[in-house]
């Protein structure tokens, strides 16, 4: 805490010096002293960066920012949370969350894995050892394809709520769809249903104050995750809650790639058709999803509901496989490990769909080795991304994968936003985490890991259907791209560590 205050004092001193030097004018000697003071701070910060032993790419990126963006670069460095990136910012949350999960009775249950094959059992054992949650066999999952099917199901289940509704979203807009959801929530509050809504302060920046006030006045409990005004000064601004969770009465849960907004229904003409995937689940795993919500809720407003039996009663149902709900964030940084573990256990096929594909070295190596072993690897990406850096950083990683025999497909129909990995058609993950550094290291994410469930076959079928709207990127044609395109890719790749 003292170091944090010290760093912000330096920020204000540097701003004050810059103002005096460039706008007021001070004697030459003081200008030289100010410059020397600035250089000492930057050199000390660069030295501290090197001592942290991060990846060379990440270290060099921040050194470039510090050196080539005077004062502004240092402000970005301090306020982005880089000083406490290795878990310190959310250490308290991590410890408290783990303590809660360890006290839950259903966490101590041992899953029966005898019905599964070797790679399914190996991956299930891995998740059980490294996560605070547990796999559930008494859970039913159903895949929802695209916005129309997803929101039809969500609205239907919301209207059936009897006791409570818990919602957690990265993006929640008060456009046509958002307003319709808000109306349903207000109606349920008037019927006596408890409604809690948590939204990310940056992702939901367009959520109007009027809509928030209307919900609060109606009795909906609404809280932002890491408000901008406080997150900027406590270095948490760069860490966002990317989760999309709905839990209704502890019986039904929703999780996946779709936020609340008209574009997710394909109604934004600038974006066009929106290809995405969501999941509705019933049974024991819903309780895990609800626990994740309640722990995030405690973090944002201090209300402790995890021990309240009204919200914590498991409602098992007949399942057809294993469902493991896993939450990750900057306090754990394990989603990359989970994806790597899945990829390395493949024996036949690896099918990936991701809107933001900026894989780290470990995942790229695992994909190349699997391809050389003869495993079929398909990667589905959007033809056009919604950001210059992500678009070209993704393309910069394609040559090494294409040379290894990886099949890469560009989705043509609209914007591909689904986040799934399917291994050997009997192991899969679906959720909120992209395959990029932001999801791996900065965002709070939540994924379902499915083992032997019937819903995996639906994911396979949907993937094959979407391939019909894709254009395969052929190595020979891709290598013929111009020097301008290659330069853009190389430039964007420099920022991979923060994308």
Helix and strand topology:
Blueprint: H1 2-24, H2 28-51, H3 56-68, H4 72-79, H5 91-103, H6 118-130, E1 135-136, E2 139-145, H7 146-159, E3 164-169, H8 176-190, E4 194-200, H9 209-218, E5 221-225, H10 228-231, E6 245-248, E7 252-256, E8 273-275, E9 277-283, H11 285-301, E10 322-328, H12 335-344, E11 349-353, H13 361-372, E12 376-382, H14 388-396, H15 398-403, E13 407-411, E14 414-416, E15 420-423, E16 427-431, H16 437-442, E17 445-451, H17 455-467, E18 470-472, H18 475-479, H19 483-493
Parallel strand pairs: 3-4, 4-5, 8-14, 11-12, 12-13
Antiparallel strand pairs: 1-10, 2-9, 3-6, 6-7, 7-9, 10-17, 11-15, 13-18, 15-16, 16-17
Helix pairs in contact: 1-2, 2-3, 3-4, 12-13, 14-19
What does this protein structure show overall?
- The strands form 3 sheets. The chain has a 9-stranded mixed beta sheet with strand order 1-10-17-16-15-11-12-13-18, with helices on both faces. It has a 7-stranded mixed beta sheet with strand order 2-9-7-6-3-4-5, with helices on both faces.
- Helix 1 runs antiparallel to helix 2, helix 12 runs parallel beside helix 13 and helix 14 crosses helix 19.
- The model has no long low-confidence stretch (mean pLDDT 88).
- It folds into 3 domains: 78 residues, no CATH class; 204 residues, Endonuclease, Chain A; 164 residues, 2-Layer Sandwich (Endonuclease, Chain A).
- The chain starts with a helix and ends in a 6-residue tail after the last helix.
- It is an alpha/beta fold.
- 43% of the residues are buried.
- 45% of the residues lie in helices and 18% in strands.
């Amino acid at each position: 805490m003292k170091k944090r205050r010290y760093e912000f004092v330096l920020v204000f001193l540097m701003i004050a010096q810059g103002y005096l030097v460039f706008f007021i004018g001070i004697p030459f000697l003081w200008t030289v002293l100010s410059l020397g003071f600035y250089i000492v701070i930057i050199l000390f910060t660069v030295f501290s960066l090197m001592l942290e032993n991060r990846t060379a790419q990440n270290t060099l990126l921040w050194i470039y920012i510090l050196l080539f963006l005077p004062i502004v670069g240092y402000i970005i460095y301090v306020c982005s949370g880089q000083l406490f990136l290795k878990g310190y910012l959310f250490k308290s949350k991590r410890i408290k969350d783990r303590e809660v999960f360890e006290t839950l009775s259903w966490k101590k249950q041992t899953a029966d894995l005898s019905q599964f094959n070797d790679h399914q059992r190996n991956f299930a054992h891995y998740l059980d050892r490294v996560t605070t949650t547990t796999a559930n066999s008494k859970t039913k999952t159903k895949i929802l394809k695209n916005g129309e099917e997803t929101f039809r199901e969500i609205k239907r289940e919301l209207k059936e709520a009897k006791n409570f509704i818990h919602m957690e979203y990265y993006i929640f807009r008060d456009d046509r769809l958002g307003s319709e959801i808000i109306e349903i929530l207000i109606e349920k509050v008037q019927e006596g249903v408890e409604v809690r809504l948590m939204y990310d302060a940056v992702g939901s920046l367009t959520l109007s104050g009027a809509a928030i006030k209307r919900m609060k006045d109606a009795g909906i409990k609404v809280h932002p995750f890491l408000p901008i005004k406080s997150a900027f000064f406590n270095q948490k601004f760069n860490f966002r809650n990317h989760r999309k969770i709905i839990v209704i009465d502890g019986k039904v849960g929703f999780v996946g790639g779709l936020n609340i907004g008209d574009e997710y229904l394909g109604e934004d003409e600038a974006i066009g058709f929106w290809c995405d995937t969501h999941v509705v689940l019933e049974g024991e795993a819903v309780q895990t999803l609800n626990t994740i919500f309640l722990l995030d809720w405690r973090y944002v407003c201090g209300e402790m509901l995890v021990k309240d039996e009204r919200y914590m009663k498991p409602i098992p149902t007949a399942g057809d496989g294993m469902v493991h709900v896993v939450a990750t964030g900057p306090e754990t940084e394990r989603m990359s490990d989970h994806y790597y573990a899945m990829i390395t256990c493949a024996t036949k096929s690896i099918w990936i769909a991701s809107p933001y594909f900026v894989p780290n070295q470990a995942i790229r190596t695992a994909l190349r080795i699997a391809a050389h072993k003869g495993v079929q690897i398909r990667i589905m990406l959007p033809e056009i991304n919604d950001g210059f850096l992500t678009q070209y950083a993704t393309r910069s990683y394609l040559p090494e994968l294409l040379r290894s025999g990886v099949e890469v497909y560009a989705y043509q129909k609209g914007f591909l936003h689904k986040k799934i990995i399917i291994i050997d058609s009997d192991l899969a993950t679906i959720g909120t985490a992209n395959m990029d550094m932001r999801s791996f290291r900065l965002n709070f994410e939540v994924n379902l890991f499915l083992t032997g469930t019937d819903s995996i076959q639906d994911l396979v079928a949907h993937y094959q259907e979407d391939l019909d709207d894709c254009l395969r990127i052929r190595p020979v044609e891709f290598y013929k791209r111009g020097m301008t395109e290659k330069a853009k890719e190389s430039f964007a790749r420099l920022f991979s560590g923060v994308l």
